[in-house]
C-alpha cells in the first residue's frame, strides 16, 4: 500500500472507528467522512496528525468526490445501521444507504481508485435461512428498505467492477458487537442496549419471545478481516458472510449478561418488530477459505471487553 490515505466513510461510528484505529496503528493515513448522525468525534483520536475528519454526508456527491481525492482505497461503512429506522423512514435512509454507495462508486470511477470494502448485511437473506446456516448463494429476500438498499448497493458495486474495474470486497456482516456501539437509540444494536440497561438497572424490553437468534461477532475480530481485505493483492470474488456459524437467542444473551452482573433488571416482552428476522446464522465456509480467521472471541469474553471487565 502507498502512503496515500484510506478513506473510511462512517469512520466516526462503531465499526468505522475501530478500523480507523487499526489503520493508524499500522502507520497509515486515514480520512474519515461522517455526518456524525451516529458517529462521534470522541470515537476518534483527533490529535493524530495522520487522521483527517470531514464532517458531511455521503449523499452529497461533490463532497464524496472531494473526500476521495488523493486516497488509495475506501472502506465504505457509512449507513443508517438501524433496520427499524429504515422501516420508519425509507426515503431518508435510502439517501445514506444507497445513494451514498452510488456516490462512492462514481467518485472512484472518476478518480481511478479501485479498492473498496463494503459493509453489506445478513439482512439481505431475510428469513430464507429458516434456522439453518445461511451460505452466500441462499436466495436473497430483503424484508426492509435497509436490506433492499444493501442488496442494491452490492449489485451496483458489481456493475462498477465489471464495467469500470473497481475491486469491491463485499462483506455481509452478521451481528457485530463491542465497545463504542452506541446504545442511545431504541434502534441501537441489541447487545449495546441490553448491557447498558443491565448496568443501569433499567427495565429491558424483548420484542417477541426472545427465542429469535443472531450470530454475534466481536468487532476486533471483524477489523482483522477488513485489514486483510484492504491489503490483499486481489479481492475475493462475491460477497462473504461474516459470522461464526453460531446461533445465540436473546434469552441466552440475557442469561449471559445476567451472569456478568449477578442478575438482571425486570424483562418484559412486546410484539415482534415488523420485518424482524427470526433466525440468522452464517455459513462461513467462504470466509474461512478466503481469509485468515482470528480465533473467535467468545460471546462472554466480548461482553467483558465491551463492559471494560477484561
Ligand atoms: P454506526 O451507526 O455506529 O456507524 C455508521 C456511521 O455512519 C456513523 O458514524 C454515522 O454517523 C455515519 N453515517 C450515517 N449516515 C451517514 C451519511 N449519510 N453520511 C455520512 N455518514 C453517515 O453503525 P455500525 O454498526 O458501525 O455500522 C457500520 C456499517 O456496517 C453500516 O454500513 C452498517 O449498515 C453495517 N453493518 C453493521 C452491522 C452491525 O451489526 N453493527 C451488521 C451488518 C452491517
Ligand atoms: C443488526 C444491525 C444491522 C445489521 C444486521 C445484520 C444494528 C442496529 N443493526 O440488525 O445493521 O445489518 O444486524 O444481521 O446494529 N431487540 C429487542 N430489544 C431491544 C432491541 C432489539 O428485543 O431493545 C431485538 C430485535 O427485535 C431483534 C434482535 O433484538 O430481534 C436484534 O436486533 P438488532 O440488534 O437491532 O439487530 P438486527 O435487527 O439483527
Report on the structure:
About 40% of the residues lie in helices and about 15% in strands. It has 10 helices and 13 strands. The protein has helices at about 15-25, 60-70, 85-90, 90-110, 145-165, 190-200, 220-230, 250-260, 285-290, 300-305; strands at about 5-10, 30-35, 50-55, 75, 115-120, 165-175, 175, 205, 215, 215-220, 240, 250, 265-270. The strands form 4 sheets. The protein has a 7-stranded parallel beta sheet with strand order 3-2-1-4-5-6-11, sandwiched between helices. Strands 7-10 form a two-stranded parallel ribbon. It is globular. The relative contact order is 0.14. The mean pLDDT is about 95. Nicotinamide-adenine-dinucleotide (NAD) binds near residues 38, 77, 81 and 176.
Q: Give the helix tally.
A: 10
Helix-strand category: alpha/beta
CA radius of gyration: 19 Å
Count of discrete structural domains:
2
Amino- and carboxy-terminal Cα gap: 34 Å
C-alpha geometry? globular
How helical, in percent, are the residues? 25-40%
CATH architecture name of the largest domain: 3-Layer(aba) Sandwich
Share of β-strand residues: 15-25%
Annotation, overall tally of beta strands: 13
Poorly predicted runs? none
Q: What do we call the CATH topology of the largest domain?
A: Rossmann fold
Largest sheet: 7 strands, parallel
Summarize the helix and strand pattern as letters.
EHEEHEHHEHEEHEEEHEEHEHH
Classified in CATH, the superfamily of the largest domain is: NAD(P)-binding Rossmann-like Domain
CATH class of the largest domain: Alpha Beta
Strand order, biggest sheet? 3-2-1-4-5-6-11
- Mean of residue pLDDT values: 96
Amino acid at each position: 500500500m502507498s502512503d496515500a490515505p484510506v478513506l473510511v466513510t462512517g469512520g466516526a461510528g462503531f465499526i468505522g472507528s475501530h478500523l480507523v484505529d487499526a489503520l493508524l496503528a499500522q502507520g497509515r493515513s486515514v480520512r474519515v467522512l461522517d455526518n456524525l448522525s451516529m458517529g462521534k468525534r470522541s470515537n476518534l483520536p483527533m490529535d493524530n496528525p495522520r487522521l483527517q475528519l470531514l464532517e458531511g454526508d455521503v449523499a452529497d456527491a461533490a463532497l464524496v468526490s472531494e473526500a476521495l481525492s488523493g486516497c488509495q482505497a475506501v472502506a465504505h461503512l457509512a449507513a443508517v445501521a438501524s433496520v427499524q429506522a429504515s422501516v420508519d423512514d425509507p426515503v431518508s435512509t435510502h439517501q445514506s444507504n444507497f445513494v451514498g454507495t452510488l456516490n462512492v462508486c462514481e467518485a472512484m470511477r472518476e478518480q481511478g481508485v479501485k479498492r473498496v470494502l463494503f459493509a453489506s448485511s445478513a439482512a439481505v437473506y431475510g428469513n430464507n435461512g429458516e434456522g439453518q446456516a445461511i451460505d452466500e448463494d441462499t436466495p436473497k429476500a430483503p424484508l426492509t428498505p435497509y436490506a433492499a438498499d444493501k442488496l442494491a448497493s452490492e449489485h451496483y458495486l458489481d456493475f462498477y467492477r465489471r464495467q469500470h474495474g473497481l475491486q469491491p470486497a463485499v462483506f455481509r456482516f452478521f451481528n457485530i458487537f463491542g465497545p463504542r456501539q452506541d446504545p442511545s437509540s431504541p434502534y441501537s444494536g441489541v447487545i449495546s442496549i441490553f448491557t447498558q440497561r443491565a448496568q443501569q438497572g433499567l427495565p429491558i424490553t424483548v420484542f417477541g419471545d426472545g427465542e429469535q437468534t443472531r450470530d454475534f461477532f466481536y468487532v476486533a475480530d471483524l477489523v482483522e478481516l477488513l485489514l486483510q481485505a484492504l491489503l490483499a493483492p486481489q479481492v475475493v470474488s462475491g460477497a462473504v458472510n461474516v459470522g461464526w456459524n453460531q446461533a445465540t437467542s436473546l434469552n441466552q444473551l440475557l442469561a449471559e449478561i445476567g451472569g456478568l452482573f449477578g442478575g438482571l433488571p425486570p424483562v418484559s416482552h412486546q410484539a415482534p418488530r415488523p420485518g424482524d428476522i427470526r433466525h440468522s446464522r452464517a455459513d462461513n465456509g467462504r470466509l474461512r477459505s478466503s481469509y485468515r480467521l482470528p480465533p473467535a472471541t467468545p460471546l462472554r469474553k466480548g461482553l467483558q471487553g465491551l463492559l471494560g471487565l477484561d
